[in-house]
Amino acid sequence: MFPLVAAGIKGSLPWNEALSGVAGSVSLASWIFLLVPQLVENYKQGNAEGISLVFLALWFVGDITNFIGAIWADLVPTVIALAVYFCIADLVLIVQCIYYNLLSARRSKRQISNASARSEPDDPERPLLDRTRHSSDNTRLLGSRRRSSASHRHRGSHSSYRRRDSLSKIAEDESPAKVWIKNTVTVTLIWAAGVAGWAIAWKTGVWTPADNNGEETKMPAGAEILGYVSALCYLGARIPQIIKNYREKSCEGLSLLFFVLSLQGNITYGAGILFHSVEKEYFIKNIPWLIGSLGTMFEDIIIFMQFHIYADNQETSSAIEER
């Protein structure tokens, strides 16, 4: 993300600059590990049906405009390198999702083809009851495929369950308490890494408050426009995912930790900007990135509510499949 410029006096570190630096470092750690939970979730599921590709595409466009804006504004190389990392990470997740979606589509065609092959042409000498039974079986099979692709994500057919390795099954059977503990430990470690990283950078002189002598560098108009475009993309990206969750009444296939880290990264990023300064000119200059970070928090909260509301639906679906 964009740098949190400090304006303290050389050799000293005001408390607000320290908090700004810590918040920025924690935000950075959150963004670096952000996509890992969803990549792992897709791998465990063996599909990517839970996440909206429109969501990922808009997010990717936001990161692209963020990257171009960073170059245009002549920001420090570290910020540009991070923008490149975000774009690459987005591409990895998008490619993984497309790969699994193609596999799912191929598997569906194969199952439908097999079902059609098993249905024999009508034979005048064949009993009517037997013909009716085969026809109803095929209809049931095709109908079940439509339900599974259009409603709750049941994590594939029973054959896909059998193909999963033992590690995936163990992870799948984790209790809510274990998942909560695992997520809490992960968030704690990221906070620890962020704080430790900032402290080391400060002590070694890698990170120091910049002395701008009260002068604010004017950002190019084009870079500022790209900042607003990026913010709009980030704001709009979650809407398709929220709609998808609502239509399917399920958040299955989504990683809760993915959205936890997103919320954490946005909170700490916005805090890092505001801790540095709340002066009018500085605040106006950073509005695009405040909108892109703090604005998406409300959408993340909506998704958290969907996780809670649709949890019972997922448990019911799992119980039906086990029968």
From TrEMBL:
Residues 113-132, 138-167 are annotated as: Disordered. The chain crosses the membrane at residues 20-40, 52-73, 79-102, 179-201, 221-239, 251-275, 287-307. It catalyses: L-histidine(out) + L-arginine(in) = L-histidine(in) + L-arginine(out). Signal peptide: none annotated. It comes from the Eukaryota. Its main location: membrane. Residues 119-132 have a biased composition (Basic and acidic residues). It is found in: Membrane. Keywords: Membrane, Transmembrane, Transmembrane helix. One of its GO terms (molecular function) is basic amino acid transmembrane transporter activity. Residues 143-161 have a biased composition (Basic residues). Pfam families: PQ-loop. The keyword Zinc does not apply. The keyword Transmembrane helix applies. It is a multi-pass membrane protein. GO terms for cellular component: lytic vacuole membrane. Gene3D superfamilies: 1.20.1280.290. Belongs to the laat-1 family. This is PQ-loop-domain-containing protein.
